[in-house]
Design goal:
Chain B: This is Spore gernimation protein. The complex is a heterodimer of chains A (about 350) and B (about 500). Chain A has about 350 residues and is α/β, with parallel strands linked by helices. Chain A has ten helices and 14 strands. Classes of the chains: A alpha/beta (about 350), B alpha+beta (about 500). Chains A and B meet through loops of A and α11 and α16 of B.
Chain lengths: ~350, ~500
């Protein structure tokens, strides 16, 4: 008797331990429609949302664009299912496009909904868009069959290869930064119209709300100071100059007594293109240009940090410098108050690699 | 009731098999003639010889060399004037036979019986060898290396081994297995290297066989294996003398069976089944790469189709996006679920494999074309299976051919089916459970009481020199621990 009972118990344990359930999801690939992105926009009524997505085609059918007006994100999925013969699944959701208006009102509850869904991967790219994403998708899907896939590849490229062109972020990083003191999340901001989907800069969040964004010039400094600390090209228009392969070594210091934040940045790069009036073969001219670049970089960095102070965000996590091994740490609110009024001191140095081959 | 009317019941006698065929009669001319009664190829010839004496020669003409019968026996005996006839014969292996049972045994082994009128019986060996020449191995071909292989002649096979190991320590113990077939079985080992305990285990196992027929080496292995219900072979079967000689030198035992060109090698591990004689011919880096490729291919051959079923049924999340789109399109029109689709293709593949084995060479080319084009392409076009599955089945089938051991490669299909069912119900966790079970099972197996899953469990670091990777041969200073050889050093220590 003991052996059959043992066998049944063993099989039972195996089934339950492996997540076997009579109510398990039916995931046979041909019966589901794994969508790759959701675009969330402010609805006409207060608190309502417009959720849109593209459903991948099977066989020789067109890609279908679905858009529905709902109050809850999950309601959107249900509405899509009513319209389509395959079940919409979020297991392959790779991108979440958030309208600027919603981003300004707060997106933490949206993020929570997605994070609690066990199907959704934490590597979900987050993007803020300005404009009519629906018009862009409808127009572009006629020309580009795998539009959503190529958009995903673009974000994946900038994330994985650390190219330093776009500050890509995913839902996991976003929520981590949101809930960590001395840290604020950011997202790439894109401008969308019927024909164009173009990168505009980086948007900065505080308490889950979009506070503002950088312009393209400032964005270069942010990318150099943030995670990648590398830019393939730094365009300096006032000097008619392009620097290539720019790396930055950043040292941050917070002096609580002097109420000062000091950034010491060591840049290294090479001159890729120069269309200005100086003769780079002349040593005097070259030193002069180096000084001008250094001044430009210092001014740009100060301008970026001042923007952060105005927005009340700290995406560079400068606040971490206040932590000491023994003393009590500053509260996030205290740090923000300090940061907003702190004096900024930026000391840049630049090392230009020789031009000769 | 129906059977009772039509078939007369046979009363099975509870007798020992050996007793059943034992002759208890006295030795006489009549009893000798009775022995060959109702045998078309049994002959008894009477000859008058000098001194008005008569002799009777009894033999089975299909077992003896008829050309030599006249010159070696009849002519010398006819002119024999000696009292004892056997003194006139030139053969040195003449046996004086005293019992009928012994006479029968010798006659059936190809001896000619000579019975004189004084009641003496002699047996002269005149066996027809029916031997084929030593040819190249068909089942384990290698490009660079020895080309000879075993034949059905056991003595010839022993010669091939003795040429490679010219040692008096190479012992050959003879056994007879099967009371009907009386198959000659020879166990070979190198005394002083092979562990006597293992030799003793093998000796006892062979001696204990009390079955009617041992036709070939697999029959013998079935009686000697420690775990008969396992799908994994616990003896290595090879027709390559070089491989046998190498194993003997490492302290293993080789068992030769008469009338079969395959030898059994034991004790072995699961990993020996992935080794090929060519591994020791290639440069060690190349050999290591090829060997690891075999392990990978084995895993691919058993896991690829179950993984396809697991991914398409349960885990669409982890399929790369572009492949998922292709899969969606490919599977959209299919009438079967991934499990049935996989099962169908595995069945078809197995049918093709079996058919190509049983067909003559010329027909198997046609079969290949039919299988490849008609079944593969047409099945996709007809919408029975997806294009991706056809690719995966092809890859899995080709990968399974990389396993050098035929018996192991044949177990693949069964394991695949088991994993397929697990993958269909439980997805990847199911496959993992299957793998855990397989590892646990392999860990529990033994080959002649030696651990089958070493050098992983138990962990024999020494044997890792010749495991996933094949280390340079000069580095293999010691014999593998798994065979538990008495003398572990391979270098001659006396020479420094």
């Amino acid at each position: 008797m003991r052996s059959p009972i043992f066998t049944v118990l063993l099989i039972g344990c195996i089934c339950f331990l492996t997540g076997f359930s009579p109510f398990s999801d039916q995931n046979t690939v041909e019966e589901i429609a794994p969508v790759t992105f959701l675009a969330v926009k402010q609805g006409e009524e207060k608190g309502s949302l417009t959720v849109a997505t593209l459903v991948p085609p099977i066989m020789n059918e067109e890609k279908q664009f679905f858009s529905t007006k709902v109050r809850l994100l999950e309601q959107g999925r249900r509405q899509f299912n009513f319209k389509y013969y395959r079940e919409i699944r979020f297991g392959q959701l790779r991108m979440l496009f958030i309208d600027e208006q919603i981003a300004k009102t707060g997106i933490v509850n949206l993020m929570d909904t997605l994070l609690t869904d066990p199907e959704v991967s934490p590597r979900l790219f987050l993007i803020v868009f300005k404009g009519d994403f629906e018009a862009y998708t409808k127009n572009q899907m006629q020309k580009q069959k795998d539009l959503d896939y190529y958009l995903y590849r673009m974000f994946k490229h900038y994330e994985k290869e650390n190219q330093g062109e776009i500050a890509v972020t995913n839902i996991h990083e976003f929520m981590e930064k949101t809930h960590t003191p001395y840290s604020d999340p950011y997202m790439p901001v894109f401008n969308v119209d019927k024909n164009c989907f173009s990168y505009e800069g980086t948007g900065f969040f505080s308490n889950g709300k979009l506070k503002g964004q950088t312009d393209k010039e400032q964005d270069q400094f942010f990318l150099l100071l943030s995670k990648s600390k590398f830019l393939k090209n730094v365009i300096i228009e006032p000097l008619d100059l392009s620097l290539g392969e720019v790396h930055a070594i950043v040292k941050k210091q917070v002096n609580l007594k002097d109420h000062t934040v000091v950034l010491k940045i060591q840049y290294r790069g090479r001159i890729d293109e120069y269309r200005g009036s100086k003769d780079l073969n002349s040593q005097a001219d070259f030193y002069e240009l180096t000084d001008e670049i250094k001044d430009y970089l210092e001014e740009g960095t100060v301008s970026l940090l001042k923007t952060f102070q105005e927005l009340g965000v700290d995406p560079l996590e400068i606040g971490r410098q206040t932590l000491t091994p023994v003393s009590k740490s500053m509260s996030a609110e205290d740090w923000l108050t300090f940061w907003k009024s702190a004096k900024i001191k930026v000391d840049c140095s630049i090392e230009l690699e020789p031009l000769t081959i | 009731m129906f059977w009772n009317k039509r078939i007369q019941k046979i009363r099975h006698e509870k007798k020992n098999g050996n007793e059943l065929f034992q002759k208890n009669e006295d030795l006489s001319l009549e009893s000798l003639k009775a022995m060959i009664s109702n045998m078309d190829d049994g002959e008894s010839i009477e000859h008058s010889i000098s001194r008005n004496r008569k002799i009777t020669i009894v033999y089975i003409k299909t077992l003896i060399d008829l050309e030599r019968l006249n010159e070696s026996i009849i002519q010398p005996v006819k002119n024999c004037s000696e009292e004892m006839i056997h003194t006139c014969l030139s053969s040195e292996k003449i046996v004086a036979v005293t019992t009928l049972d012994n006479a029968q045994k010798l006659m059936m082994q190809g001896h000619v019986l000579i019975y004189d009128d004084k009641g003496h019986l002699w047996a002269v060996p005149l066996e027809n060898p029916l031997a084929r020449s030593v040819e190249e191995s068909q089942s384990e071909t290698i490009l660079y290396g020895p080309k000879d292989s075993f034949t059905e002649q056991i003595d010839q096979n022993i010669t091939l081994l003795r040429r490679r190991l010219p040692l008096t320590e190479l012992k050959t113990e003879k056994f007879s297995a099967g009371y009907l077939t009386k198959t000659k079985v020879v166990m070979l080992y190198v005394e002083g290297i092979a562990n006597p305990d293992i030799v003793d285990i093998a000796r006892k196992k062979i001696s204990k066989i009390n079955f009617d027929m041992i036709i070939e080496q697999s029959n013998l292995a079935a009686f000697m294996e420690d775990h008969i219900h396992s799908v994994f072979p616990q003896f290595q079967q090879t027709d390559r003398p070089d491989q046998c000689a190498y194993s003997l030198g490492l302290g293993k035992i080789v068992i030769l069976v008469a009338n079969t060109p395959f030898a059994l090698i034991a004790p072995i591990t699961f990993f020996h089944l992935f080794q090929s004689p060519e591994d020791y011919i290639h440069r060690w880096i190349v050999a290591s790469f090829l060997r690891s490729l075999r392990y990978v291919s084995y895993m691919v051959s058993i896991l690829l189709i179950p993984l396809y079923v697991a991914l398409t049924t349960h885990h669409y999340h982890i399929i790369p996006l572009q492949i998922l789109f292709v899969l969606l399109e490919s599977r959209s029109k299919l009438p079967f679920s991934p499990f049935w689709e996989g099962l169908l293709m595995l069945f078809v593949l197995e049918i093709i494999k079996e058919a190509s084995l049983r067909m003559p060479n010329k027909t198997s080319t046609t079969l290949g074309t039919i299988a490849g084009i008609v079944i593969g392409q047409a099945a996709v076009e007809a919408g029975f299976v997806s294009k991706i599955l056809i690719v995966l089945v092809g890859v899995a089938a080709v990968a399974s051919f990389l396993v050098p051991n035929y018996l192991l490669s044949k177990t693949n299909t069964l394991i695949q089916f088991a994993y397929l069912i697990l993958a269909s119900f439980l997805g990847i966790p199911g496959i993992v459970l299957g793998l855990i079970h397989m590892l646990a099972h392999l860990n529990g197996l033994t080959s002649l009481k030696q651990p089958y899953f070493s050098p992983i469990a138990p962990l024999y670091w020494r044997d890792w020199m010749d495991f996933f990777f094949r280390a340079p041969i000069p580095w293999m200073k010691k014999r593998p621990k798994q065979a538990d050889a008495l003398f572990k050093w391979r270098y001659n220590r006396g020479d420094g």
